[in-house]
Amino acid sequence: MLSETLHNALNDQMNFEFYSAHTYLAMAAYCTSENYDGFANFFLVQAEEERFHAMKLYNFINDMGYRATIQGFESPENDFSSVLESFKIALLHEKEVTRRIYELSDIALDEREHATMAFLKWFIDEQVEEEATIDTLIHKFERIVNDSNAIFMLDAELAGRTFTAPEV
Ligand code: FE
User: What is the pLDDT of residue 168?
Assistant: First the structure.
């Protein structure tokens, strides 16, 4: 049994994950327009991951006997001054996701809703991964930012990233 507060908070997070997919899709489109197909691929895979996160919440809400409500949202940022800037904005976005997941977990904890707490543990772990991946890329990028050959190689490396739905 979920309280209305917790049900709504889970639903909000589901919608925010869909919004995250949009955010990364916009970054992918920017990178493609700058002819960085590898960086674009990184963000396309990221968008798929976000949709997977949203669907995890969607399924959980259904499994708990409630209905997921799909909402619209504001347009994400579409304009970036550089690929590096898009990665920096991506990191800020992930930090915001982490903050929201923690807030959601706090509600579940306050309500002693153990099924939701167990479910959210996966998201808490995932956020550590998400922030670390993007943070590492920013550091690599900053180290090579004036070396076009190195940027070419990093772009090529990221072209190989693929999405595989994690075992859950
Ligand atoms: Fe996510």
Answer: 60
- Domain holding 30, by residue range, is 23-47+80-159
| Cα 94 to averaged position of ligand 1 atoms, centre (Å) | 8
Residue 87 inside a domain? The answer is yes
Q: Kindly list the protein residues that place their beta carbon closer than 5 angstroms to ligand 1, a single-atom ion.
A: 17, 50, 53
Residue 129's CATH number:
1.20.1260.10
The DSSP line for the chain is ---HHHHHHHHHHHHHHHHHHHHHHHHHHHHHHTT-HHHHHHHHHHHHHHHHHHHHHHHHHHHTT--------PPPP---S-HHHHHHHHHHHHHHHHHHHHHHHHHHHHTT-HHHHHHHHHHHHHHHHHHHHHHHHHHHHHHHTT-HHHHHHHHHHHTT----PPP-
Whether residue 118 is contained in a domain is answered as yes
Global model pTM greater than 0.90: yes
8 Å CB contact between 17 and 122: no
CA of 108 to the centre of ligand 1 (A): 18
Count of domains observed in the chain = 1
- The parts of the chain modelled with pLDDT lower than 50 are none
In a domain, 63, yes or no: no
